[in-house]
Amino acid sequence: xxxxxxxxxxxxxxxxxxxxxxxxxxxxxxxxxxxxxxxxxxxxxxxxxxxxxxxxxxxxxxxxxxxxxxxxxxxxxxxxxxxxxxxxxxxxxxxxxxxxxxxxxxxxxxxxxxxxxxxxxxxxxxxxxxxxxxxxxxxxxxxxxxxxxx
Length: 150
What we know:
The mean pLDDT is 82. The protein contains four helices and six strands; from the N terminus they run βββαβαβααβ. The chain has a four-stranded parallel β-sheet. Strands 2-3 form a two-stranded antiparallel ribbon. By secondary structure, the protein is an alpha/beta fold.
């Protein structure tokens, strides 16, 4: 027998604005199992987020789009800057990001912050095009905005 989970009614909180920084326009996810993409990844993230919150916020979309099969770094940085400049949105979820391989055992460090600093310097040295993105992320957090990575 199939059991149905019934969620309680949620309080509407249109005064809480949450940003979604992701591909919101290019269909990439196969939701119905037919082998064809029918939903943008960012919309999946939005749906998961809003179904798990105890209230209904206002969602503000920051669309990175896609070029081919990737989200360009310049698009991510551009949308991060829009989030930073938007005074009405204090929180955002970002599900797009690059993956950079490192071996933390190659670094001597005294704390997690020291390790993070060394890794960021290593990433910037090896991927100089990411400097603007990293600087934007630093300025967002120094302004007190909350950015969450899925």
